[in-house]
Design brief:
GO molecular function, one term: diguanylate cyclase activity
Protein name: diguanylate cyclase
Shape: elongated
Radius of gyration: 28 Å
Keywords: Membrane, Transmembrane, Transmembrane helix
Number of helices: 15
Oligomer: single chain
Strand content: 5-15%
Domain GGDEF: 264-422
Structural class: alpha+beta
Order of helices and strands: HHHHHHHHHHHEHHEEHEEEEHE
GO cellular component, one term: plasma membrane
């Protein structure tokens, strides 16, 4: 996989550990960073507003409703937090106000994990914003009714900080850390941009809380969070444009761009699922979708530094750079064999199919089921020109040759790999 492949940005481990790495780096270098940025106080305090506003603006056309909601929460929180330089010399009621703010932000961020993905300006998004407004009004009314004496016991009993650790209340730090850790596990489990957005902001809002008495630390943390949110929108947009949503393989557009820049020796293998239309008619389209997902997952394991694409329908393309067609045959035959030997367990023709490894997970092991095997045909061609013995064939000609080889494989009985050069 290339070092800067977008698939790395989409992996669950990257989505968790890259922000964690930035957070750890920030913790160890915060003093040096603050000294470096000290001459630019106006820029530092303005930058989060600029970045978060861009994120909010882009979230609507790119259908990133959760990102927009999170960014809006961060803007509101940053505006309120900026009114507090520290909490050491504040009155008890001001401290209580601070605690309400830093408790509400992580809780509201965490709740978004369990909300449906909707546009910011949708009915659902507006209802959520009204809920936030209700919380603000409720807090304001609460603060109007209490005095320093009413909350001093609460501060002394539950919200006192440990000065050696942080000037912020220990209880709030623990709550934020717990929510951040749970959010990280959700990202690792579900691996969605939706959850990644929430985790990033929980993480950096927690860092800002721990180091709250450091000047401009909130601005730096919120700026980093906003930058990662913008990166998330970019990678998500790339995913929508170039990644097939059903199989999670690179799509046809990604293949076309790849072929525009390819040169030298390479091999194209075109793969087609045998009798796929008949399979769809017999078991239903949802079963057909599972078959395509299964084939895609096995294709991802293809050796030989292969790049895998979904070409359309039941057709896939495998690209081998720097190899001729004969060198690729062992990898392709191994792939064909793995697919043919995989037992696909189907419980009832009218239900969605369950892969054999998922039967127990879904509690379907005690019902009637059918086990089927699917096969694929593969046609192979490379860029070597027989006339010149140079790898200078046009990409269109290589594709035509691979398609011709695929046609021969299907006519030859299917479940086979045909190399046009030696057919």
């Amino acid at each position: 996989m290339p070092l800067f492949s977008f698939s790395r940005f989409r992996s669950a481990s990257f989505r968790v550990f890259f922000p964690l790495l930035l957070a750890v780096q920030l913790c160890f270098s915060s003093e040096s960073l603050l000294i470096l940025l000290a001459p630019y106080p106006s820029l530092i305090s303005t930058f989060p507003y600029i970045m978060l506003s861009i994120v909010i603006f882009l979230s609507q056309p790119f259908n990133q409703g959760a990102t927009g909601l999170v960014a809006l929460l961060m803007v509101i929180s940053f505006y309120l937090v900026q009114n507090y330089v520290g909490i050491a010399d504040l009155t008890d009621i001001q401290r209580f106000t601070f605690c309400l703010l830093v408790f509400a932000l992580p809780v509201n961020l965490f709740v978004i994990h369990f909300l449906p993905e909707k546009r910011l300006l949708s009915r659902f998004g507006i209802n959520y914003l009204l809920l936030i407004l209700f919380q603000v009004i409720w807090c304001w009314l609460l603060l109007e009714q209490i005095t320093n004496e009413n909350v001093s016991w609460l501060w002394n009993a539950y919200l006192k900080p440990i000065p050696a650790l942080s000037s912020s209340p220990l209880l709030l730090i623990i709550i934020s850390i717990i929510l951040t850790l749970v959010s990280a596990f959700i990202v690792l489990f579900r691996n969605s941009n939706f959850d990644h957005t929430i985790f990033i902001n929980l993480l950096f809002s927690t860092i800002a809380l721990i180091f709250f008495d450091s000047p401009q630390i909130s601005a730096i943390c919120f700026s980093l969070a906003a930058t990662l949110l913008l990166l998330g929108i970019i990678t998500s947009s790339h995913e929508l444009a170039f990644i097939d949503q059903l199989t999670e393989l690179q799509g046809r557009r990604a293949l076309e761009i790849e072929m525009e820049h390819i040169n030298g020796l390479y091999t194209i293998a075109m793969l087609d699922v045998d009798h796929f239309k008949l399979f769809n008619d017999s078991y239903g389209h949802r079963t057909g979708d599972e078959v395509l997902r299964l084939v895609a997952q096995i294709m991802k394991q293809t050796e030989g530094n292969a790049s895998v694409f979904r070409y359309g329908g039941e057709e896939f393309v495998i690209l081998f750079k720097g190899k001729n067609s004969n060198q690729c045959l062992p990898y392709l035959n191994d792939l064909r064999s793995k697919i043919a030997n995989y037992d696909l367990v189907i419980r009832d023709h009218h239900d969605r199919p369950i892969l054999d490894k998922d039967v127990k997970k879904y509690g379907l092991d005690d019902g009637e089921h059918t086990t089927v095997n699917i096969t694929v045909s593969i046609g192979v061609a490379d860029s070597i020109n027989d006339k010149t013995n140079q790898h200078d064939l046009r990409t269109d000609d290589v594709f035509k040759a691979a398609d011709k080889a695929l046609y021969r494989a299907k006519n030859g009985g299917r479940n086979r790999v045909t190399n046009l050069r030696f057919a």
